[in-house]
Amino acid sequence: MSPARPNILLIILDTLRRDRLSAYGHDRETSPEFDAFAGHSTLFERAVAPAQWTIPSHSSMFTGLYPSTHQVTQSSSSLSGSYPVLAEILRGAGYHTVAFCNNPLVGVLNNGLQRGFDRFYNYASAAPFRPIEAQRSRTHRALLRFFRRNFARPIGNQFAHSDFLFRMSLNPALVPLWTRLINYKGNTANSIDDFIDYWKQQQATASEAPVFGFLNLMGAHLPYTPPQDFVDRVAPKLRHDKHAYTFMRRFNTDAARWASPTDPPLADWERQALVDFYDAEILHQDYHLGRLLRHLKQSGALDHTMVIIAADHGEGHGDHAFFGHGFVVYQELVHVPLVVYDPERFPAGMRVPSNISTRRIFHTILEAAGVQPPLDAADPNANVAGLALHTAVVDAAPLEHDLAYAEAFPPLTFLNVVQHQNPALIERLRLNLTRRSVYAGAHKLVTVGDQVEGLFDLAGDPAEIHSVAAQHPQQVTTLRRKLDTFVTHAESQRAEAAEFAEVDAGVVDHLRALGYIE
Description:
- By secondary structure, the protein is of the alpha/beta class.
- It has one domain: CATH 3.40.720.10.
- Helix content is 42%, strand content 15%.
- It contains 20 helices and 15 strands.
- Strands 1, 2, 3, 4, 5, 6, 9, 10 and 11 form a nine-stranded mixed sheet that branches. Strands 12-13-14-15 form a four-stranded antiparallel sheet, covered by helices on one side. The chain has a two-stranded antiparallel ribbon with strand order 7-8.
């Protein structure tokens, strides 16, 4: 791979639990294609997502900032223009930027995550936007654009801003309509086909501009409806279990439970059915991912392409009494898979044991592209070389010193659902409070509000069953101090950005003229 201006491909496997991948120790073969690719890449054992759900986590990967700074923590949030995003910076440096996105929270909502892309293809819509649209008649294209601009996007954003509309959409009678008719999970196969065709065209035209490609796959997200042959491969005995299929049909339409506490808790067989169907979805998605990865290899594209594969967050299946990915920072949500393919700087087969944040994907990509973000030199986020993941491979004492943080700001849409269905849970489980965690070595401290929720020794207790806070008060004090310092620093960065936006609009205009921001 040429070190100068390589192509860069960022693949986000949305809602994918780290512990359900074979490469990370799962006892089922759910990810043979991912595993094979990981064997030629550097695998990070302790990658930590900055947030527990899609919008804040993507915002962190696209800006290099934690949620306390960028503040994109709700479905109605929008990323400040003070924060240049990855695609904007790369486009300003001469990259062609293209996205193939299956998640409506990234591809439909007006939250700023689409900024900077020359082309943003979106598969999660009643009228998906695909490259093939360019082959349609001018009238057909105009009608599709009119529908998206005046109906699809405005309606999607209204649901993101309205408590009433959101709760109404969760009615079991309506869930099948929006999950199927508007392609809630996009279309994995189509997005992979289009990405492969796009890459073929890029090679055929021999474009001098390097490419930054972003691909989001939603196969592991609810509802779980994997093809039967993939269910048979992971759980062959399930085919004749009518109770399991009946339960899954019911759960797939009960969207209010997708990100809520387990009240009442599932029976063991119900939870196992969820796990089986989830694993089958992972295997099905992995099949399509493999098609893309094989094309990149067989076409020779991998010779000059950095590939990063990660998850934005995981998923709860009743772990710690929670479903989905709404309120907590336990391992099933924020301990995510991450591999980087770049043979010159990320050794094949290497497994990195240190704690790292996936927000550093931002710095890693910019370092590979040889691009410096348009930030003040005093801004710690400007230290691209120091924060790039390469430092965790070669440096025994990396910049962040084996520390990583995760933050869970309660998503108000689901908090309001709980308020209407079971308000007592909010106080009992403290759902309205922000949860945070700090990782240091094998220990992880979790706080809720200003209280300690637990200290966990992840080496001996990876599922976080038993808190050891009482036995290690000094460790609790040390980690609380680190967490407090982190929050203070993150919030001060936000204040500085707000001040910059208010008093230095001329600089912003200059960055916009250079193509860094829109």
